[in-house]
Automatic annotation (TrEMBL), chain A:
Family annotation (Gene3D superfamilies): P-loop containing nucleotide triphosphate hydrolases
The organism of origin for this protein: Rubricella aquisinus
Main location: membrane
PROSITE patterns, sorted: ABC_TRANSPORTER_1, ABC_TRANSPORTER_2
Keywords (A to Z) from UniProt: ATP-binding, Cell membrane, Coiled coil, Membrane, Nucleotide-binding, Repeat, Sugar transport, Translocase, Transport
Protein name according to UniProt: Simple sugar transport system ATP-binding protein
Domain ABC transporter: 6-241, 258-499
Subcellular location: Cell membrane
Xref: PANTHER family: CARBOHYDRATE TRANSPORT ATP-BINDING PROTEIN MG119-RELATED, GUANOSINE IMPORT ATP-BINDING PROTEIN NUPO
Lineage: Bacteria, Pseudomonadati, Pseudomonadota, Alphaproteobacteria, Rhodobacterales
Coiled coil stretches, renumbered: 108-135
Keyword Thylakoid set for record: no
InterPro entries from the UniProt entry: AAA+_ATPase, ABC_carbohydrate_import_ATPase, ABC_transporter-like_ATP-bd, ABC_transporter-like_CS, P-loop_NTPase
UniProtKB/TrEMBL annotation, chain B:
Organism field: Rubricella aquisinus
TM helices/strands, residue ranges: 64-84, 91-113, 157-174, 206-227, 277-304
Protein name per the record: Simple sugar transport system permease protein
Lipid bilayer topology: Multi-pass membrane protein
One Pfam entry name: BPD_transp_2
A GO cellular-component term linked to this record: plasma membrane
Subcellular localization, as worded in the UniProt entry: Cell membrane
C-alpha cells in the first residue's frame, strides 16, 4: 500500500480557552476525494488552515506522502504541493485572471518574461482539466463560478498535488456545482488528491470516496461514502437523531396579504436591479424565491420591507395593523438576509437586540424611557421558546453562535405577531440542528395563517418549505414552479433559461 | 504679457510642481500598498529641515541630502511600526507625525541656530544649483528654442528626478513583480498572504519607498528651490500632494498632471498679485493664496468623479478566518 497523501496524528489547536481541534487523526489516501463534514464551529476550517500553514498546531504531526513535515506558512504548504481554494476567494478583484495566478509565482523580477511562460502553462492546464477561463478577463467581471476556477487554476499552477476546497459550492448554481464536480473528478482521474469541506450532505454522497465527520473540535468518524447514508452522517455531525425532511401538511391559502406589482428598483449607479416584478403572497402559504445570490433578491426584500428605494411599482400590504410613524410597514416582520449587518447590533446584549426596531412600542417603555424589566422578561421568554443557547439575556449578540443569533432575530420578528413575514436566508451559516428548529417554526407560522415570503439561495430549503417557488434571475421573475419541481427545472430557471426556451 | 513672461511662468510651474510630484509619488507607493499616509507633510518638513541644517553644518550637499532622506525614512518607519506592526490607526499616526515634525524642526532649529527656528543661508557647497543638461547652454541666444531649452534643460537635478520618477514608477508598478505585489497587497492582503508572500514585509518596503521620495521632496524645498529652512516651510504641500494623488486616482502619469496643475496655480499666485483683472479689479492676495485649496474642494467635489481608493487602504492586516 502506498503512503497516504496526508496523515495527521494528534493535531490539537486552541484559541485561548476555545479548543478548536482536539487530538485529530486523519488519513487521506492518494488519488481520492475525501470529504470533511461538520457543523459550524466543529473545527473543519481550523484543521485545514493548519494544513495550509495559516495556523500552527499546538501539538501533533503532519505527514505528507509519508514524510513528517512542519508547515509554518502558506509558502511551505505550497512547496509541499498543497493548494487551497478558500471559501472567500483570495483574489485581487481589479487584476486580470493571469495577474492573479502569477501573484507569488511571477517567475522573475520583471513580469514580461514570466507572463508568456505562465500563459502557455495555463493554457495546457485549462485543456487538461477542462478549466476554461479567459486569462485576460478582469476577475471582478467574472461570475463566482469562474472565479472559483481561477482559484483552482492558481493552485494547480503552483504544482498542487493535494487540493483543499473550503465550502466550494456555497456560491454556485446547481449547474456550476455539477461542473465543479466534473472538474474534481477529472483531477482525481489525473491522480490528484482532493479534500472538500462542506456541510451539505448530498454533495458528500455524490462525489466523495471517503468522508470524515467532525463535531465540536473532534474527529468522530471516518466512513467510506459507499457504506454510509445521509441519515447516519447527519446523526454523527449533530450527535443526535435529526429530522432532515420537513414535515408539513398541505397549505391552506387564504386572502392575499402581500401584493407586489410592477416593482422596479434602480441602484445608485443607475443599474436596474429589479425589473417589473409582480406576485402575491396569500395568508397560510410560504412563497419561496429561489436564485443565485445577487440576482435581485436583496433589493426585493429591502423594497418590500420599505427600507430600500423603489423606482416604480407598488408594494401593498393588507394588514389591519395600526399606522405607526416609526415603522415603514406596520404588520410586516422582516428577517434580514445578513444578520450581522442588518439583523443585529452585535455589540449590544441579547436583551437590547430583542427590541431593535420595536423600541418605541408601548410595551417596551413610555416616553423617553425604556421599561428594562419588561424588556428582560420578553427576552427571557423568547430565549426559552426558541431554545436560544446560552439563555443569557445579558450576553452580547456577537458571542452567540450563528444559529443562536439567527434564532434571536427570528424570535424578535415572529413574536411581534406580524401578518406578513419576509425571511431572507433564514439558515445561512446555521447548524443542522438549529435549521430543523427554524424550519419547524416557519411551518407552524404558516399553519397559523401568516403569509410568508422566503428568500434563500439553498435550493433544498426552498423546495422543502415553499408551497410555490418563484425563480429570480437578473432582477426578473423567470417563472413559477410547484415545490415538486426537480432540481434541474429550478436550476435551469436560476441560470436564466426560461421554460419555453429550454424546451426548444 | 510677452513670451518672456510665459517662459518664466512655465519655469516656476515646473519648480513648484517638483516637490509636490515627489511627495505625491511617495504617497502613491504607500497608499497602493494599503497604508494611508497623512504624514507626507511632516516628512517633507522634517527632511527639509534636516537637509538645510546638515548643509549649513557640514557644507556638503550630497551628505546633507543623504541625511535629509534618512530622516524622512526614519519618520516613515515610525509610521510603519505604528500602523503595520502594531496595527494602529493610520490617520492618527499620520497626524502625530505631522505634529512631531512641526514641533521638532522648530525646537531643534532654535537650539542649533538661535534664529527662531530658521536656519542660516546654506553655503554654496551645501546646496544644489541648476544642473544644465546636454547642450542647453549652446542654444542660448536662439530665439524661442533658447529660452525654452533653458527652462527644460537647466533646472536643479531634483526637477529631472521628479519627472523621471513618473515613468519609472509606472514601470515598477505595472511591469515588475514588486509592483504587482504592491498593488495586490493594497487591494486584498489576504490574497497576497495565501500566495505565500509576507504582507508585513511588502508594506514596509512600500513605506520606505515613500520615505525616500518624501526626503527628496523636502530636500528640493530647502536645498534647491531655496537656500535654507524657514518655519513651516512645507506649507501644506504634503496635503496638496495627497489631493493630487486622489485626483490622479492613484496612478503615476495622472499624478504628474495633477501636480503640474497645482504647480501652475502656485506659480500664478505670485503673478496675479497686484494685477488688475478683467471685471473683478485687483484681487486680494489672500484670495489668490486660497485658490489652490478652493480648487481642490471644487474639483474633488464635482469634477473628477468617484475616485476608487485601494480597497484595503487604511486597514491593518490581521490573519483571521
Amino acid at each position: 500500500m502506498t503512503a497516504p497523501a496526508i496523515e495527521l496524528k494528534g493535531i490539537s489547536k486552541s484559541f485561548g480557552p476555545v479548543h478548536a481541534n482536539k487530538d485529530i487523526d486523519l488519513r487521506v489516501e492518494k488519488g481520492t476525494i475525501h470529504g470533511i463534514i461538520g457543523e459550524n464551529g466543529a473545527g473543519k476550517s481550523t484543521l485545514m488552515s493548519i494544513l495550509y500553514g495559516f495556523y500552527e498546531a499546538d501539538a501533533g504531526t503532519i505527514a505528507v506522502d509519508g514524510t513528517v513535515v512542519k508547515i509554518k506558512n502558506s509558502d511551505q504548504a505550497i512547496a509541499l504541493g498543497i493548494g487551497m481554494v478558500h471559501q472567500h476567494f483570495m483574489l485581487v478583484e481589479p487584476f486580470t485572471v493571469l495577474e492573479n495566478i502569477m501573484l507569488g509565482a511571477e517567475g522573475g523580477a520583471f513580469l514580461n518574461k514570466g507572463r508568456a511562460a505562465a500563459r502557455k502553462e495555463l493554457e495546457r492546464l485549462e485543456r487538461e482539466f477542462e478549466l476554461h477561463v479567459d486569462l485576460d478577463a478582469v476577475v471582478d467581471d467574472l461570475p463566482v463560478g469562474l472565479q472559483q476556477r481561477v482559484e483552482i487554476l492558481k493552485a494547480l499552477y503552483r504544482g498542487a498535488e493535494i487540493l483543499i476546497l473550503d465550502e466550494p459550492t456555497g456560491v454556485l448554481t446547481p449547474d456550476e456545482a455539477d461542473h465543479l464536480f466534473r472538474i474534481l473528478g477529472q483531477l482525481k482521474a489525473q491522480g490528484k488528491t482532493v479534500m472538500m469541506i462542506t456541510h451539505k450532505l448530498r454533495e458528500i454522497m455524490a462525489i466523495t470516496d471517503d468522508v470524515s465527520v467532525m463535531r465540536q473540535g473532534e474527529m468522530v468518524a471516518t466512513r467510506q461514502t459507499a457504506h454510509t447514508s445521509v441519515d447516519e452522517l447527519a446523526e454523527l455531525m449533530v450527535g443526535r437523531h435529526v429530522l432532515l425532511r420537513v414535515d408539513k401538511g398541505p397549505a391552506n391559502p387564504g386572502a392575499v396579504k402581500l401584493s407586489v406589482s410592477g416593482l422596479t428598483v434602480v441602484d445608485e449607479l443607475g443599474v436596474t436591479r429589479l425589473k417589473n416584478v409582480s406576485f402575491d403572497v396569500r395568508q397560510g402559504e410560504i412563497v419561496g424565491i429561489a436564485g443565485v445570490s445577487g440576482n435581485g433578491q436583496s433589493e426585493l426584500l429591502e423594497a418590500i420591507a420599505g427600507i430600500g428605494p423603489i423606482a416604480s411599482g407598488e408594494v401593498h400590504l393588507d394588514c389591519d395593523a395600526e399606522d405607526t410613524p416609526w415603522r415603514p410597514r406596520p404588520g410586516l416582520g422582516h428577517v434580514p438576509e445578513d444578520r450581522h449587518k442588518m439583523g443585529l447590533v452585535t455589540k449590544f446584549q441579547a436583551r437590547e437586540n430583542t427590541i431593535l426596531g420595536y423600541q418605541r412600542e408601548a410595551k417596551f417603555g413610555q416616553g423617553m424611557f425604556l421599561d428594562r424589566a419588561a424588556i428582560l422578561e420578553t427576552t427571557k421568554a423568547e430565549m426559552e421558546r426558541y431554545d436560544v443557547r446560552p439563555p443569557d439575556p445579558y450576553l452580547k449578540a456577537a458571542n452567540f453562535s450563528g444559529g443562536n443569533q439567527q434564532k434571536i432575530v427570528i424570535a424578535r420578528e415572529i413574536e411581534q405577531d406580524p401578518d406578513v413575514l419576509i425571511v431572507g436566508q433564514p439558515t445561512r451559516g446555521v447548524d443542522v440542528g438549529a435549521i430543523e428548529a427554524i424550519h419547524r417554526r416557519l411551518i407552524e407560522l404558516r399553519d397559523s395563517g401568516k403569509a410568508i415570503l422566503l428568500v434563500s439561495v439553498e435550493l433544498d430549503e426552498i423546495r422543502a418549505l415553499s408551497d410555490r417557488i418563484l425563480v429570480m434571475f437578473a432582477g426578473e421573475i423567470m417563472g413559477e414552479l410547484p415545490p415538486t419541481a426537480t432540481e434541474r427545472e429550478v436550476g435551469l430557471l436560476m441560470s436564466g433559461v426560461r421554460a419555453e426556451e429550454a424546451a426548444e | 504679457m510677452d513670451f518672456g513672461f510665459w517662459i518664466s511662468f512655465f519655469d516656476s510651474t515646473l519648480r513648484s510642481a517638483t516637490p509636490l510630484l515627489l511627495a505625491c509619488l511617495a504617497g502613491l507607493y504607500s497608499e497602493r500598498s494599503g497604508v494611508f499616509d497623512i504624514g507626507l507633510e511632516g516628512k517633507i518638513l522634517a527632511s527639509a529641515f534636516a537637509g538645510a541644517a546638515a548643509g549649513v553644518l557640514i557644507g556638503d550637499a550630497y551628505i546633507a541630502l543623504f541625511i535629509a532622506v534618512m530622516v524622512s525614512v526614519f519618520f516613515a518607519l515610525i509610521h510603519g511600526v505604528a500602523c503595520i506592526t502594531f496595527r494602529g490607526n493610520q490617520i492618527v499616526s499620520g497626524v502625530a507625525i505631522n505634529f512631531l515634525a512641526a514641533g521638532l524642526t522648530a525646537v531643534i532649529g532654535n537650539a542649533l541656530f538661535s534664529m527662531g527656528g530658521r536656519t542660516p543661508q546654506i553655503p554654496e557647497d551645501g546646496r544644489f544649483r541648476e544642473f544644465p543638461l546636454f547642450f542647453a547652454d549652446r542654444l542660448e541666444g536662439v530665439p524661442v528654442i533658447g529660452p525654452l531649452a533653458d527652462v527644460l534643460l537647466n533646472q536643479p537635478s531634483f526637477v529631472y528626478m521628479a519627472f523621471l520618477a513618473v515613468p519609472f514608477t509606472w514601470y515598477v508598478l505595472f511591469r515588475t513583480r514588486f509592483g504587482l505585489r504592491l498593488r495586490a497587497v493594497g487591494e486584498n492582503p489576504a490574497a497576497v498572504d495565501t500566495a505565500g508572500i509576507s504582507v508585513i514585509r511588502l508594506r514596509y518596503q512600500a513605506v520606505i519607498c515613500c520615505g525616500i521620495l518624501c526626503g527628496l521632496a523636502g530636500a528640493t524645498l530647502s536645498m534647491a528651490l531655496n537656500a535654507g529652512f524657514v518655519n513651516n516651510m512645507s506649507a501644506g504641500r504634503g496635503f496638496i500632494a495627497l489631493a493630487a494623488l486622489i485626483f490622479a486616482k492613484w496612478r503615476p502619469v495622472q499624478a504628474m498632471f495633477a501636480c503640474l496643475l497645482f504647480g501652475f496655480l502656485d506659480a500664478s499666485e505670485a503673478r496675479l498679485q497686484g494685477r488688475e483683472l478683467w471685471l473683478v479689479g485687483e484681487v486680494p492676495v489672500q484670495f489668490i493664496q486660497a485658490l489652490p485649496y478652493v480648487l481642490v474642494v471644487v474639483l474633488l467635489a464635482g469634477f473628477i468623479g468617484k475616485a476608487r481608493a485601494p480597497k484595503a487602504g487604511g486597514v491593518a492586516y490581521v490573519k483571521e478566518r
